[in-house]
Amino acid sequence: MASLVQTLETPSMEQFHQHDMMRLPHDLLGGSPAMVRAGERYIERGDGESDKAYRERLRRPALLNTFKRTLAYMRGQVFQKPVVFGDDASERFQLWAEDVDRAGNNVTAWAASVFEAGLCDGITYALADYSRVQVRQNNGVTEYFNETEQTWQTKTVASDKANGWAPYLVHIPAQNVIDCWVETRGGWPVVTHFRYFEYGMEPDGRTKWGQQQVVRIRVLWADSWQVWVKHGDADIFELESEGTSTLGVVPLSIFAPGEKCGHASAQPALYDLADLNRRYWSASCGQCELMEYVRRPVWFGRMLGKIRNADGTESDVTVGAGRMLASEDPYGDLKSVGVDASAVTASMAELETIKNEMAMYGLQLLQPKSGALTATEVDRDASENNSTLMGWAVGFQDFLENCLHYIAKWWGEEDGPSVKVNTQFSRAVQDSYLLEMYRSGALSLETYHELLKQTGTLPDDFDAEAEAEKLARGVMTNGTQGAAKSLASMLTGTGVV
Q1: Of 111, 198, 255, 413, whose CA is between 20 and 30 Å from 406?
Q2: What is the model's pTM?
């Protein structure tokens, strides 16, 4: 796509490419149904293949969703401990942290979902908004307009509490973003314009029970804002409301753990894993198709003619269980055109290789990373075990502090409190991840042992068969021969010893 005609609802070129990069991760999050609907994006249709046959072929494999599981696992490690405010947090902030989005989510629950969205999409956003109230500055004093008394009054903590006014955070996923302008001022990136979709359902005035979709576009500038709306099947957006911004900035925070592609775009952080999962989906589809030929091979018949039945009638040749075919022609023949066993073995080996690569990818995110650390990482964490996941956690910590900075601005304060996000990922965490992958069938026993050697859990000279013999001898002391064999087979994966 060479160019885009920019309109209110048309994504910018940067956001258009961002949405395109996110398509595969989002399809994987949708599971097998979404991958089937994606169709030819990931599985090529055969020449002359009917739509029905193609859809049946897509529905045969079950998606081994390692991408989704790894995404949830990473979220779980960072948020296995709650988000903690620093000692500089006021009581006001501590109370606010129990409901940060006016939907009942505390800061940890809200942050966990935003963190996962950021890893999935590569970039995600949070807007610090405030209850709708008309305010002004009068000789350095913030005043609000009292609708009941039609007068301007001093805006205080007590008036905020009495009216239910409070700042809150709005998570804006990347797929909703239309445009984002970022400029560098004084060496710091500053958002000067932001535009995004809001989707909701409202009662349909044409009926007593129906609902219609309502789509809004919120437009933010440093000094003003607008809201455009489109109801149901309307063709155009209409201006619903507008006003001025008292902060003088767009109070937007950006979390971008993915590789940056622009000021407001980034490749999904786990894109390589998503691509491996796509390869596994494609290979699984090919394996299922191959096994269909194994289970129901093609038959080749020659000079069979009609089949003479016992009652003297004739019928066409059919092949199936419990049937016997005969031919009076000396050149008659019938045989199955089977699949070469080596092809099945090679296909299974390919699936196993991709499984192991996906498991290794997740492990590498927890491993210490090499290279120079950023100043922020050095200041925030002096631990030597700085992993990729830890880097993302530290980046998200900065993101949260930026969100709280804007919350403080809404309250007329200079800055918000410091925040601590969990960054302690021990080797036991890595081992539990590997154990989960092995139990789910995503790792072979041999690969599981090799990875445990790499983490240092098992010694380099660990020998599974030798260990099985030791265990068997120990069980034989007080147990039975059958118990010893069972225990040894579990360790070696051979079934018998």
Answers
A1: 198
A2: 0.73
